[in-house]
Write a structure and sequence with these properties.
Radius of gyration of chain B: 52 Å
Number of helices of chain A: 8
Strand order of the largest sheet of chain A: 1-2
Largest sheet of chain B: none
Structural class of chain B: mainly alpha
Order of helices and strands of chain B: HHHHHHHHHHHHH
Number of strands of chain B: 0
Shape of chain B: elongated
Number of strands of chain A: 2
Strand content of chain B: under 5%
Strand content of chain A: under 5%
Helix content of chain B: over 70%
Oligomer: heterodimer
Helix content of chain A: 55-70%
Distance between the termini of chain A: 23 Å
Structural class of chain A: mainly alpha
């Protein structure tokens, strides 16, 4: 492994959290992350509705009548948003916003980032069968139904703020001079 | 320790340098006749001495008998014999000699007191004593023997003003430059950083209140995970611990020493 050009780095993860990095997360962490993701998708869905209403008002203020969506329409849009959001998150960084906040990451069977098709499948599975998440509380390997079927894992891997390495780099350079 | 007699010419030559001659040698015109005279004397004296020795050996028994007869003649009382007379003379002479012995010793001492200073200086002027000592004395052995007999540390502590010595040494040294040249400051600093847990200080200073809240929430969630897992495992009467180790590797302490954050590591692990 090549040495970092800026010199030795310091592990910014708190000592208390280092012990479980790389281990599969439990049901509480994942549920909180999932809840945050649902909140994100719900916000996006409602935002879309509000945006459409505002746009229609701006286009025709006189004859403006607010559109009414049924619950099913909201649900359908939310379902679509959820699949797109999860697919992009899994396939790019391996983290949704909820995962990032809770320090989680979705990885494939070899610990690698998911490709697009598996990401899409997992996103669809999560959207269609969200309660499958709770199986990770019972599973001996902390795996949800989606994880077992698609051979994925959700692990603890706390993200590092981009400012931290810079600060540490500067500190290392000062020490080495 | 010393070179034995008859060593090579180089040794003799170097040794001859040690003693300087006092004055000029005999002139060649005198040396020749003197040598001839000495040679003639030795040539004549040797047969004479040989003949005398042989004659002495032949005459010795006869002379011994004659002396015994003369020293103690028959029919002469013992105290009137020449031998008794010689013994009495010897006793008297011995007493005189013993009496004079102390005087002779004192006289010898006085003579030496007079002679030695007079002779020693010219002798020492003609001798390179330093070179002589260097040639003839095993200095290493001598110094070793001297050091064996004394406690050098105690001697230094008693006789040396260490405070002054150290101060003088420090005055003559640029200690800062010396440390820069001789001490691996970077390694030392790393050790200090390890001791004071600098990462924790940096972490605390770089992560704000929001970061601490997030860290706290994550740790609380992990504690919740463990609690739920424990309850369920107990309910399901599981005896073995959960297998939560995921495939792949997450940067550990050592790899953090070599390279940067986990996001980079995650990208490297990617197979997509």
């Amino acid at each position: 492994m090549a040495e970092h050009p800026a010199g030795p780095q310091i592990n910014p993860i708190p000592p208390k959290a280092r012990g479980f990095q790389g281990l599969r997360a439990g049901v509480v962490s994942r549920s909180v992350a999932g809840g945050i993701d649902y909140a994100v998708v719900a916000t996006a869905t409602l935002g879309t509705y509000v945006g459409i209403v505002v746009l229609l008002f701006l286009l025709n203020p006189r004859d403006f009548t607010p559109v009414t969506w049924t619950f099913g329409q909201f649900l359908l849009l939310g379902f679509f948003y959820m699949i797109v959001y999860l697919t992009v998150s899994f396939a790019t960084t391996g983290r949704t916003i909820g995962d990032r906040l809770m320090g989680l990451r979705v990885v494939g069977r070899k610990g690698s980032r998911l490709r697009w098709i598996p990401s899409l499948l997992r996103a669809g599975f999560c959207a269609v069968f969200p309660v499958g998440l709770f199986w990770c509380a019972i599973s001996h390997e902390n795996r949800s139904v989606q994880d077992i079927v698609l051979r994925t894992s959700v692990i603890h891997e706390w993200p590092i703020a981009p400012e931290a390495p810079k600060l540490l780099d500067a500190d290392s350079r000062r020490l080495s001079e | 320790m010393t070179d034995g007699p008859g060593n090579d010419d180089a040794t003799e030559a170097s040794r001859s340098l040690v003693v300087r001659r006092a004055g000029p040698q005999l002139p060649a015109s005198v040396e020749g006749p003197v040598d001839v005279a000495l040679g003639a004397a030795v040539t004549v004296a040797r047969p004479v001495v040989t003949v005398a020795v042989l004659a002495g050996r032949a005459v010795e028994p006869l002379a011994r008998t004659a002396w015994s007869l003369a020293a103690r003649p028959p029919l002469v009382p013992e105290e009137w014999t020449p031998a008794a007379f010689a013994n009495r003379l010897a006793d008297r002479g011995r007493k005189v000699r013993f009496a004079a012995g102390a005087d002779v010793t004192e006289l010898t001492g006085q003579t030496l007191d007079l002679v030695v200073p007079t002779v020693l200086d010219p002798v020492l002027d003609r001798v390179d004593l330093t070179a002589l000592v260097i040639q003839r004395v095993d200095l290493e052995r001598l110094v070793g023997a001297v050091l064996d007999t004394m406690d050098l540390t105690e001697l230094v502590l008693d006789r040396v003003d260490l405070h002054r010595v150290v101060e003088a040494a420090l005055d003559s040294l640029d200690l800062t430059q010396l440390v820069r040249d001789r001490v691996d400051v970077a390694s030392l600093a790393e050790e200090v950083v390890d001791e004071i847990d600098l990462p924790d200080i940096i972490r605390e200073s770089s992560t704000g209140v929001a970061g601490e809240v997030v860290d706290g929430a994550r740790l609380s969630a992990v504690a919740g995970d463990e609690l739920i897992n424990k309850w369920i495992d107990k309910f399901l009467q599981r005896r073995k611990a959960r297998k939560t180790q995921a495939p792949g590797d997450v940067p550990d302490e050592e790899s953090w020493a070599d390279q940067g954050g986990s996001d980079q590591a995650g990208e490297e692990r990617s197979d997509g």
